Amino acid sequence: MGAAVTKSESLQKEWVPQTKLEAKIIEAVQRRASRGTTMKSFNSIVLKFPKIDEGLRNCRAIFQEFDEDSNGSIDQNELKNCIRKLEISFEEEEINDLFKACDINEDLGITFTEFIVLLCLVYLLKDDSSTLQKKWTMGMPKLEPTFETLVDTFVFLDGNKDGHVSREEMVRAIDESGERSSGRIAMKRFEEMDWDKNGMVNFKEFLFAFTQWVGIDEDEEEDDIDEKA
Ligand SMILES: [Ca+2]
Ligand SMILES: [Ca+2]
Ligand SMILES: [Ca+2]
Predict the structure, then answer these.
(1) What are the EF-hand domain coordinates in residue numbering (predicted)?
(2) pLDDT tens digits for range 154-206
(3) With b meaning 16 or more CB within 10 Å and e meaning fewer, what string describes 154-193?
(4) Ligand 2 center–CA 63 separation, angstroms
(5) I want to staple 110 with a disulfide (CB 3.0 to 4.6 A). Which of 11, 54, 74, 106 is the partner?
(6) What's the 108 CA to ligand 2 centre distance in angstroms?
(7) Distance 79 CA to ligand 2 centre (A)
(8) Considering every ligand atom, which ligand is closest to the CA of 206?
């Protein structure tokens, strides 16, 4: 891990997925993009923030259900049980990739924010096979519209539908809002999203940033940790 990323210029043009999961996410985003977006402007997205925030808070109960030992984080075994319970047909390798992809701070646990990203990725990928749709919907009926809004937003931002949001696409999306400082806001938003600083934002990075924009944070959990320490 790590050493492979040296030619940052070539990355911008020809990005190669590191895992099967990443390739699948790109595929799924592009498939979803072919159906178009209902978003009209960045402002229309901002107006949805409170609704999205409320929707994402519903994930808390699901999170607690899967965090079997209630230690505030879902470990690899708990995730496997979770995927099994939802009857999502992921291979062992895919579950491991999903775990790694969402465990951004690499502490071998999925916290609540990381879990939201994970669920949304599962939502996106479930499009792959319609057979798991029924069970999935039963498990989280209220979350579908929220996740759909998130996917829709990404599709809106990704102007050329290549599965990534570039700086230019972000500037264009926010520019249309007509605000005077829109260029600066767009750059700031972009920097917030592009945390591996490769000049492109993938769906996962977008999700992590977005959950913060709408107001979800892990204050509660951090307080818990402080008390124990
Ligand atoms: Ca746990
Ligand atoms: Ca983690
Ligand atoms: Ca793009």
Answers:
(1) 54-89, 90-125, 145-180, 181-216
(2) 999 999 999 999 999 998 888 876 667 778 888 888 999 998 899 999 999 99
(3) bbbbbeeeebbbbbebbbebbeeeeeeebeebbeebbeeb
(4) 14
(5) 74
(6) 6
(7) 12
(8) 3
Give the pLDDT mean for 103-115: 94
DSSP letter, residue 131: G
Considering the segment(s) 19-218 as one domain, its CATH architecture is: Orthogonal Bundle (1.10)
Domain residue limits, the chain: 19-218
Q: Tokens for 165, please give them.
A: 């949001």
The reported pTM is 0.81
- Give the distance (Å) from ligand 3 centre to CA of residue 168: 9
Phi-psi region of 110 (alpha: psi -120 to 50; beta: other; left: phi over 0): beta
What is the C-alpha separation between 166 and 137, in angstroms, rounded?
Answer: 33
Which whole number is the average pLDDT over 107-133? Answer: 82
Torsion, Cα 218 76 119 60, to 10 degrees, reads -40
31 C-alpha to ligand 1 centroid (Å): 34
pLDDT in tens, 17-63: 778 899 999 999 999 999 999 998 888 898 999 999 888 888 888 89
CA of 43 to the centre of ligand 2 (A): 31
**How far, in Å, is the centroid of ligand 1 from the Cα of 82?**
11
Largest CA distance in the chain: 50
The H or E element spanning position 201 is strand 200-201
